[in-house]
Structure formats: structure tokens, C-alpha cells
């Protein structure tokens, strides 16, 4: 029970006569030294307990969500792996189908080529026989014309009729040109086995020059050293005649044709170069193709014939420009 003290001191008494009472209430038994009651402490501890419990529940839900997401990711990975396996199988099937298609296409192309080749060979065979017959039929009267031109030149040379001699010379050149074209056709169509033997290179070259009308402003430099070639002399002579004629035609204002030899252990290289106007770089890969020519009166068969003859010997022929140089390579043994 509160006790009231009536202090009637002068200091406590108010001026108007009022009296001030002091209450000395004892402290509450439940109050602690810190100023908090037991009830407040219990509430605080309960709040902490509830908060900890909520945190545990939230943490558990969080782990459950992570586990759920992880399971979903694993399922997606498995689904992707299955799709990849399926794609791989489909790709393998597609590759097998492509391979089978390529094989069938190759077989079809081979069959078409065989049929086409048979037809083409028959066609070329007929054309070859016809061309050969026509060439022979034309060459015979040309030989008659050439003989008559020679007789007329002999007759008018005594009379010193320069006008007639000039006309006869032009006729002779025309007959010579047509004859060469016919010879190119016949040589291209004619297939005969080569007869190889050991023969002097310089001998073949000198015999080749006897078939050529060399202008006075053209010089031919021959190698000083001779070598023995294992070849068909007649066919190689045809090659050299053609090569020299091409060089002469390329040098309109004259020049020099140079032969050189590189004699190796297993093969012999013959280089033929001239001081003509040269060959355009883009035309070099085409000059050995049949019927390709840059001449107005050419047949386009000269160089293909040379190439075929050399390859029949087991050799090769190539060309480079600056200056124009043909390189013929012949083996020293009989081709297999």
C-alpha cells in the first residue's frame, strides 16, 4: 500500500498555502533491474522463437524449390540427350542415303559415258574413214598441180618472165599449204604402232630440215653435241618438221630457232625456242587441244599430233613463254 508522507516544511509548502504530498511506492516485484518485466522478456523470447521457426520454414521451402529446379534441369538434359541421339541416327541415315545416291549416280554416269563413247567412237570412225579418203583424193590432184608448176617454173625461168614466175611461186606456196593441211589430217587420223630404235638426234633433225622451206632471214642453231634417241625416227621427224614450221610462221620478220639438249640418265630433254612474238598466257593451256588454232589457214591438228606421237613414246611435251620454248622429254627405254 502506498504510503504518503506529509512534509510540512517551509520549502515544501507553497506560497498559497497548498501542501505537497510525496508518494513512496515500493517497486513492483516483477520488475527487473533493467527496467523490463518478466512478461516482456517472455514476449521477446517468444518472438525470437517464432522468427527462428519462420526462417527454418523459409529455408526448407527454398531448398525444396532448388531441388525441384535441379530435377527439371536434369530432365531437360536427358530430353536434349535423347534428341541429340535421334539427330545423330538421322544424320547417319542421311549420310548413307547420300553415299548410295552418289554410287548410283556414278554408275549411271559411267553407263552414259560408255554409251556415249560407243556412239562417239562409231561417229568418229566413220568421219575418220571419210576424211582419210577425201584427203587422199585431194592430195593426188595436188601432186599433179605441183609437178606442172615445177615444169612451168623451169620453162619460164629461161625466158626470165618475172611476172609469170611470181605467179607460179604463189601457186606453189598455195599447193604446199593445202598439202600440209591434208597431211595434218591424215597424220591425226592414222594410227600406227611406233617402231623404236637407237638413232642420232642430229640425223633426225637434218632430215627434218630437208622438208622445210626455210626463209633466208631465219636461222636455225643446232647443238654441237649429238645424242642417241630411242625413238621412231620417222614419227619424231614429223614432230620436228611441225615445230620448226610453227616457229617460222611465228617469226614474220625473221629470227632464230634454237635447239638444245639436256641428256640425263633415264631421259633426254629437247628444248626448241624461237624469237617470235610469243604466245598469250591465256592461250598456253589450249594449244595442244585438237582443232584449236590462231592461224587463219591452220587446221589446229599440228601440235596435237606432236603431243600424241611423243606420248606414244612414253614422253611428254610442255610449253612456256618468254621466249616461246617447247620442251620434249623422251625416255631412254621402250615405253611399256
UniProtKB/TrEMBL annotation:
Which keywords belong to this entry?
ATP-binding, Kinase, Nucleotide-binding, Phosphoprotein, Transferase, Two-component regulatory system
Q: Identify the SUPFAM superfamilies for this entry.
A: ATPase domain of HSP90 chaperone/DNA topoisomerase II/histidine kinase, Homodimeric domain of signal transducing histidine kinase
Task: Give me the stretches of Basic and acidic residues compositional bias.
Answer: 7-18
Give EC number(s), comma-separated. 2.7.13.3
Locate the region Disordered.
1-39
Output the CDD domains linked to this UniProt entry: HATPase (cd00075), HisKA (cd00082)
Among Gene3D superfamilies, the record links this protein to: 1.10.287.130, Histidine kinase-like ATPase, C-terminal domain
Molecular functions per Gene Ontology: ATP binding; phosphorelay sensor kinase activity
Q: Which residues form the Histidine kinase domain?
A: 133-334
Q: PANTHER family of this UniProt entry?
A: PEROXIDE STRESS-ACTIVATED HISTIDINE KINASE MAK3 (PTHR43065:SF10), SENSOR HISTIDINE KINASE (PTHR43065)
What name does this protein carry?
Histidine kinase
